[in-house]
Design brief:
InterPro entries: YicC-like_C, YicC-like_N, YicC/YloC-like. By secondary structure, the protein is an alpha+beta fold. About 60% of the residues lie in helices and about 15% in strands.
Length: about 300
């Protein structure tokens, strides 16, 4: 399966059950699955089933889902409240004669509350059930579309992650081959350090100094960190190949990458190794930033 981003957008519209039904869904990254609905009056009952649909399609992400339902025009006709209209017209004529006000217009009178009555159509229970079924059907289609959009963005993210992991591998290889890690380089540094100490304090035990220097050199060896970094690189590539739903695992793995990079920096006994460690930390931070968007 392919990687899937948690960022996406989808809008889908369909005419069904005598209505124009539209869903608009936005998603961003999140630690869990969180859906917030905006539903028109009368459709609150679909929320529970709608949440179940989201759970079927996605594992993580923050979603905002808006539903719009426009019923087709029915047979009900607008009516005019004739008695009220006649009374209002008489009042308007009186005001015009008494105070010299402008003559009232039909449009003005019709706009007054209660003059034009547009009856609200009442949806039959069986039609409401059909409508809710259609609403859920359109939602399912919209979620499929959103999934395709998130997969397209996930593919682009996967390409970025692949490049970043390759950069980490290159830096690990540079550290492995760094000439400052060679036995001769380590021996030369130790000899120079011991010589400085003996010059400063000739009474010091030369054998003990060599022993302590060798012990410190062993503690400063970064081979274990490099071996673990190589293991993490292989794990990261396997997870990317595995695809869908690995965002959380990759996030945990970046923490391990960062831990090894920190240890490498703290144990480095040469400026070149420290530079590599800092470069590693920078790439790992970039990697983690991208992984935050993966489901």
């Amino acid at each position: 399966m392919s990687l899937q981003s948690m960022t996406g957008f989808a809008r889908h519209l369909r005419n069904s059950a005598g209505a124009q039904i539209s869903w608009e869904i936005k998603s961003v990254n999140g630690k869990g699955l969180d859906v917030r609905f905006r539903l028109p009056a009368g459709f609150e009952a679909v929320e529970q089933k709608a949440r179940a649909l989201f759970s079927e399609h996605f594992k993580r992400g923050n979603f905002q889902a808006a539903l719009s339902v426009e019923l087709s025009a029915g047979s009900a006709k607008a009516t005019i409240n004739q008695p009220l209209l006649k009374e209002l017209a008489a009042i308007a004529a009186h005001l015009r004669e008494e105070y010299g006000l402008a003559a009232s217009t039909p449009e003005g009178l019709m706009a007054l509350r209660g003059v034009l009555e547009i009856p609200q159509e009442v949806t039959a229970p069986e039609h409401q059930v059909e409508l809710e079924r259609a609403v859920l059907g359109v939602l399912d289609e919209t979620l499929i579309q959103l999934g395709h959009n998130r997969q397209a963005e996930g593919k682009a993210l996967g390409e970025i992650l692949t490049v970043q992991i390759a950069t980490i591998e290159m830096l690990v290889e540079q550290a492995k081959l760094d000439p400052n890690r060679s036995i001769d380089a380590v021996r030369a540094r130790l000899a120079a350090q011991v010589a400085l100490l003996l010059d400063a304090a000739p009474a010091l035990d030369e054998a003990r100094l060599h022993m302590e220097a060798a012990f410190l050199a062993t503690k400063a060896d970064i081979q274990e960190e490099l071996d673990r970094l190589e293991m993490h690189i292989a794990s990261a590539r396997n997870l990317i190949r595995e695809g869908n739903g690995v965002g959380r695992k990759l996030d945990f793995l970046t923490q391990e990458f960062n831990r090894e990079a920190n240890t490498l920096c703290s144990k480095a006994n040469a400026a070149s190794i420290t530079t590599i460690g800092l470069d590693l930390k920078a790439v790992v931070d970039q990697l983690r930033e991208q992984i935050q968007n993966l489901e």
